[in-house]
Design a protein that fits this description.
alpha/beta, 26% helix
Length: 423
């Protein structure tokens, strides 16, 4: 696994999402500086979007420490009176296991975390949009996620005020600005939305969003019965955020922590996005930034889950760019093939039992598992019973080269190109 990036010493971070141990492993292998995750209730993702529990915190903290990365617990939803004992237990557990910080918005969480000596990162749910608000919150936290609807000019003004006024957090260091750089965007920008609650009784502010905004709607004149369709567009549903092409401007604006959205996403999504943004941020900070490199990053990011891309509000957009379809526009999809039954570390070769689809020499593949994360490659040197083979089908047990260590029981998928008409 990649050791921590030298730029983290200057306060710069790539922060990766994780909904399971496989995503944690994928993020660390991709070179992230930090991983954030929820653990059961009281975070902004429903339990179905995450398999991480409080029992996993020691392992996550240990894995992160091994490579010099940070582990952040997201506990950023509203907390009701009856949930205070649960909140206390979660924060106690975080403190006991060495979690590096808690992402929070509710004052009860902030106060309790501070009393335990747990650093606090302020969630985007607070919609911090100006330096006066940031100055107020600086007494509680060293890192603040600014409101998603701010432009780079807005962020630059706040960053300059932090330096000019020497606005420091509890650690005595200047407040660091954190912003989302990639992933799904909410029509309510900083996530404070009641649409799901009004229509389905499930609150998005409690991690139960039903994604009502992702549907198609028709505007109807109730008095006359006339209806207007919106040319197939899902006019409440924004495309996904992608800022890899403006990373130089993001750094210049004063952003220190670059947060990838996607705690409900696959380990290969996590690894791909981390690797691309790691490379882009390093290129900016080391003076190697080239527009010519952006096309390659764009191609890799397009392979994994996305609803189409835009740059959000950073460049001054006045309205959202709408999605067209209801699902992913990824250029690849993964198809389950089988499981790893052995791995030979000296040879760098995996042995698999094929359970469904045929896999062939030259196919792109990904192997996922709770410890392996997401290991991607192209089938090379395939053997069946020690003889070269062009393909393997159901019931076969082929071996082929795998670029990183995998484990028995890991799942093997082949990555298949998706052909779509231009949107």
């Amino acid at each position: 696994m990649t050791m921590p990036n030298a730029h983290a010493l200057n306060g710069y971070e790539i922060m990766a999402p994780a909904g399971g141990l496989d995503a944690v492993a994928a993020a660390l292998a991709g070179g992230t500086d930090s991983v954030y995750f929820g653990a059961g209730a009281l975070n902004m993702r429903s339990p179905s979007a995450s398999s991480i529990t409080l029992d996993d915190l020691p392992e996550i903290a240990s894995r992160c420490r091994e490579v010099g990365a940070k582990a952040y617990l997201a506990l950023n939803s509203i907390v009701y009176e009856a949930e205070l004992p649960l909140m206390d237990r979660m924060l106690d557990r975080a403190a006991e296991t060495g979690i590096d910080a808690v992402i929070a918005s509710d004052p009860a969480v902030i106060e309790r975390a501070r009393s335990l000596g747990l650093p606090v990162h302020l969630s985007t749910q607070l919609s911090i949009s100006n330096v006066r608000a940031l100055r107020f919150y600086a007494q509680f936290a060293d890192v603040a996620v600014l409101a998603r609807e701010l432009t780079l000019d807005d962020i630059r003004d706040i960053a300059e005020a932090i330096r000019r006024e020497n606005i420091c957090g509890p650690s005595g260091n200047l407040i660091r600005i954190e912003c989302f750089c990639h992933g799904a965007l909410c029509m309510a920008v900083s996530g404070q939305c009641n649409l799901s609650f009004f229509l389905r009784g499930k609150s998005g502010n409690r991690g139960q969003c039903q994604h009502i905004c992702r549907r198609k709607y028709r505007l109807e004149d109730v008095e006359r019965g006339d209806a207007i369709d919106f040319d197939g567009a899902r006019f409440l549903s924004p495309k996904d955020l992608k800022t890899i092409g403006i990373m130089d401007r993001m750094v210049a604006a004063g952003i220190k922590v670059f947060k990838i959205e996607g705690r409900a996403r696959s380990p290969e999504y996590v690894r791909t996005t981390v690797e691309c943004y790691r490379e882009a941020l390093d290129a900016v900070l080391e003076g190697r930034w080239r527009e010519a490199d952006v096309a390659g990053w764009n191609e890799r990011l397009a392979r994994v889950f996305n609803r189409g891309f835009w740059e959000g509000w950073y460049m001054g957009a006045k309205s959202i760019e709408q999605t067209v379809g209801n699902g992913s526009l990824a250029t690849e999809k993964k198809v389950y093939v089988g499981r790893c039954i052995n791995y030979y570390p000296r040879a760098g070769v995996g042995c698999f039992r094929i359970e469904t689809q045929t896999i062939s020499e030259g196919d792109r593949f990904v192997v996922t598992g709770p410890t392996s994360g997401a290991v991607m490659g192209r089938v090379s040197g395939m053997l069946l019973e020690d003889a070269p083979a062009a393909a393997a089908g159901k019931g076969d047990e082929p071996t082929f080269v795998v670029p990183e260590r995998i484990r028995t029981g890991d799942r093997l998928y082949k990555l298949v190109p998706v052909r779509r008409h231009a949107q």
